[in-house]
Amino acid sequence: EFVFLDHRALPFPAADRARFLDPERIAAGMPETVFIAGGPPLMIGDRGLVQPHIAIAVGPDGTFTEQLRACLIQVITHGRIERTEMFDEDDADRAVARFRELTGASPAAEAELANLSTRTADRFAEIFNARGDLRTLGFADGYRRIDRRAVVGAPEADAEEMVRASEAYFANDPVMEIDHLAIRGPFYSLHRATVTAGDAEIERLNVGAVDPEGRLALTVQFDGDAFDDALVELDRQWFQSLTDAEQHVVQVGARYGQAASTWNLAVFEEVTTEDFAYYDGTPLGARWLDRQQYLESQRIQGELFGPQHRQVFDVCELPRLDVMLSRVRSAGQG
């Protein structure tokens, strides 16, 4: 019962399953060699997801040409795709609304980002919207609010100064909404706080940290469009909280990821032991490789795909790999 629908200004024709899989249709609509890049999901529900969609064609001479950018809905039933719908890249809100219409997904059904820090942020918004005493939220000893926004009133504030600054909004009958974007461990999170008062709207990104009792220990504020900077700060704060052994694990994993993304054999050799083992569980692989076999496979892949792989990243103008992967994790991918 698969259905494909295209809602873009210049759409592909609608197609049922047979038409969608027709080799003649595919040959007419898509170059022989193409990379399909799925961006970090905009929404994930228990029946599918909404995500950016980029198609890059590879010409006979090895050059890359961007074919399309769009926003894609995938509706999944029993592990198989039931419906695909495509929207223009700048029509993401409409795509998310359509996904909710098709699947009945609600914010509660989406991949949940929750830890002690997000619950503290939600409590802050509840007290703020009720015009309550924000001091009842609980602040850790030595709490600091650090302001990294372009226009800053006070670069740093303690708990009492932060409370007074927040309560100054009460006279304008404001409403605060919290949108959680990322979590790290049980005590760190990143959220978007939007305060609306009449026709005025203030939006900022907050990196928050709490202590084991859930008391607010740190807030670092950024402008609403400074997502990458805020995410880097979240990772920095979380990383500093780890033990030396945990930091070492993260660093080795990052080095391994760097080697995998660039086929850098020197880094592979640096971060793997002599008895390193790798299991390829794909249908074409399904075998164990020892260290020497794995390094040889990476050398061959690097020669075949390395230059093209790097060009694809350049064409797509993707953010730094660590930021991109953090966005995927933030969307609930694990």
Architecture overview:
This protein is of the alpha+beta class and 334 residues long. The chain is 37% helix and 32% strand. The strands form 3 sheets. Strands 1, 2, 3, 4, 5, 6 and 7 form a 7-stranded mixed β-sheet that branches. A 6-stranded mixed β-sheet has the order 9-8-13-12-11-10, with helices on both faces. Strands 14-15 form a two-stranded antiparallel ribbon.
Content-based structural category: alpha+beta
Helical run tally: 10
What's the rounded overall pLDDT mean? 81
Tell me how many strands there are: 15
Oligomer: single chain
- From the alpha-carbon coordinates, what is the Rg to the nearest angstrom? 24 Å
Quote the beta fraction. Answer: 25-35%
Could you give a short account of the major beta sheet? 7 strands, mixed
N-to-C order of helices and strands: EEHHEEEEEHHEEHEEEEHHHEEHH
Q: Termini, distance in Å?
A: 30 Å
The amount of helix comes to 25-40%
Which consecutive residue ranges, at least 5 long each, have pLDDT under 50? 311-334
Basic shape: globular
Descriptive labels:
seven-stranded mixed beta sheet, alpha+beta, 37% helix, disordered C terminus, six-stranded mixed beta sheet
Please specify the SSE layout and strand pairing:
Elements: E1 3-6, E2 15-16, H1 17-20, H2 23-29, E3 34-38, E4 43-45, E5 48-58, E6 64-77, E7 80-88, H3 92-103, H4 116-129, E8 139-147, E9 156-157, H5 159-167, E10 175-184, E11 188-197, E12 200-210, E13 216-223, H6 227-240, H7 244-262, H8 265-271, E14 277-280, E15 287-290, H9 291-316, H10 321-333
Parallel strand pairs: 1-7, 8-13
Antiparallel strand pairs: 1-2, 3-5, 4-5, 5-6, 6-7, 8-9, 10-11, 11-12, 12-13, 14-15
Helix pairs in contact: 7-8
